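ESCALATION

Customer reports they have been waiting on this structure for their group meeting. Please prioritize. Original submission:
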Amino acid sequence: MPTGIKEWIQQVTDRALEILDLKSDGVPLDDLIAQCHAVLSRKGEATGLALAGSVVSSWHALDESEHLAFFCSLIEEFGPDRARLNQAIADYQSSNDESFAMALHQAAEAKRQELFRRMNAAPNGLQTLILMREALRKLLRDHPELKPIDQDLVHLFTSWFNKGFLRLERINWQTPAAVLEKLIQYESVHEIQGWDDLRRRLAEDRLCFAYFHPVIPDEPLIFVEVALVQGVADAIGPLLDTPPAPPLSADTAVFYSINNCQPGLAGVSFGNLLIKQVVSVLQAEHPKLKRFVTLSPIPGLRRWLDTEGRQYLSLFETSTDHAELKPIVAKYLTSGQGPKLKDPVARFHLGNGATLERINPNADLSPRGHKQSFGFMVNYLYELDDIVSNHEQLMETGQIATSKDVQQLLKKNIKHKLKELSYDA
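Update from on-call: job pushed to the front of the queue and completed.
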């Protein structure tokens, strides 16, 4: 930002704080809270924008040890106006007029939501709010009383990051280096081993698509890596290691890595939109493609075996007979209450309307793959004609869409081998 604008913002901010008798006392947290109050008290657009910019700057200057105190202040001092809310409740109860319902809705909104809206208008405001929520989420487990702030931010982010604002971009070797560096940084499923590995993943038969928001155009929100191959891939190694080849004979698109880049946007769903939009693009550009599948990790399998599935753990540690292990994996992938499946990746894809297609042993031989799922991976099939009905069945009845192969695995008795091995099933 030009120096002149920075100076103007600082001058307007200082003047506004003087008028409001909120002069700095030198304590960063107190300064920040005072600036937050000042933002909400000013009606003038220029002054309000300057003050919001000051809040953004002060948040970044705040020490991490003070984050909890700041969020507690947002709960205590920036909630709904209780007097206004009580009056709105009374007005609504005394009349069926719809205008009173709207007044009640507005009165129930916490003042911090308006604070966040004004921060969003400031330079670097949106990215700051994303980072603010990332900091908040680290505190929620030990401080559930902060949950209302999280709900406020998710409510706003859901509007600000809806499909109408997002821009789908194809990432290739001509993409600016700053964005390519962030792909390397944000890849969390299959680590990118430097620039040569990234170049391979951006070759003609390996594609990458990402969503961007116009306010933060150099920050990918989520990206997916796709391999164009023949047949359904059953292992990650060949997808990462094989030399580039023209995709002319490819009949299958394999989504092998999906990465959410912004922890502060967790729970704001982009993935289902991204996959469906990328499928549409691929269909148009590669009409010979017949199948759209994933090759997905099973990140919760080991945790499940360590806790609820302990009776099966020794079998995974000692057996090389995949025929007796695959039914257990199928049992895990379909476990949970309706749409609340235990495995997060299964919950995501099956919730999007995919079909649980195939379970693959020895699919990820990396140390991480063994630690996470004993090398197992899974294919989820996106059959476009079935996506809506699969999604509705899961949400309404809890029925999971599975292939015939997986259905056979689920019918197998997985206890008899455990008894032979003297495990208590």
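Sent to customer with the following note: DSSP finds 21 helices and nine strands in the chain.
Escalation resolved.
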